[in-house]
Specification:
With 185 residues, the chain is mainly alpha-helical. It contains seven helices and two strands. It folds into two domains: 11-75, Orthogonal Bundle (Arc Repressor Mutant, subunit A), CATH 1.10.10; 80-171, no CATH class. It has helices at residues 16-32, 37-44, 48-60, 77-101, 105-115, 121-143, 165-171; strands at 64-66, 73-75. It has a two-stranded antiparallel sheet. Helix 1 (16-32) packs across helix 2 (37-44) and helix 2 (37-44) packs across helix 3 (48-60).
Length: 185
């Protein structure tokens, strides 16, 4: 189900630390099959009390629910959409900074992490289109000899395989070039 831009959680409501809680819940659920407050606290190096407070805020925003019988945390549909949107933004920013701008990989990773949750869905979609056009068109034009081989707008992220930014976003589960260790909130 495609979420409309108007239903996007305003940037002011989703802080950098909240993003890390969502991503950690997603990562734990994918890796272990479940996520509990204790697991999140251990993963992020925080107290259970601070994690409980943050999880309650995520529940209020309808991003996370708790299974009554097991106390396992689950992302809601909105929570999943936010995670995929954030991962898409982070991935695009990382590859843009590293491959197109030439920023050192560690700096690109850190900067992408800092900016990921600030991108609106519209900006993320337009950014995807820009990067895809630049990467795919330039490669095609190089192959045809229209532009010189030295003209370097190349990325190791294969954007040409995606029909749209929405397809790209839905495919995001993380990125093997980005570290598994989340920066703490």
């Amino acid at each position: 189900m495609k979420k409309s831009e108007s239903s996007h959680i305003p940037d002011s409501e989703l802080s950098h630390s909240m993003v890390h809680y969502l991503l950690t819940i997603h990562k734990l659920k994918e890796g272990k099959g479940y996520a509990r407050v204790t697991d999140i606290a251990k993963d992020l190096g925080l107290t259970k009390g601070s994690v409980s407070t943050a999880v309650n805020n995520l529940k209020k925003r309808n991003l996370v629910i708790e299974e009554e019988d097991s106390k396992f945390l689950l992302l809601t549909e909105d929570g999943h959409e936010e995670v995929h949107r954030i991962l898409s933004s982070r991935t695009l920013l990382f590859y843009f900074l590293r491959d197109f701008v030439g920023v050192d990989e560690a700096i690109a990773e850190n900067d992408a992490c800092q900016m990921e949750h600030l991108m609106s869905p519209q900006t993320s979609s337009k950014f995807f289109d820009f990067m895809k056009d630049l990467a795919c068109t330039c490669e095609s034009l190089k192959d045809k000899g229209v532009i010189p081989e030295s003209f370097n707008f190349k990325t190791s992220l294969d954007l040409c395989q995606f029909k749209s930014a929405q397809d790209f976003m839905e495919s995001q589960e993380g990125d093997s070039h980005l570290s598994d260790k989340e920066h703490s909130p």
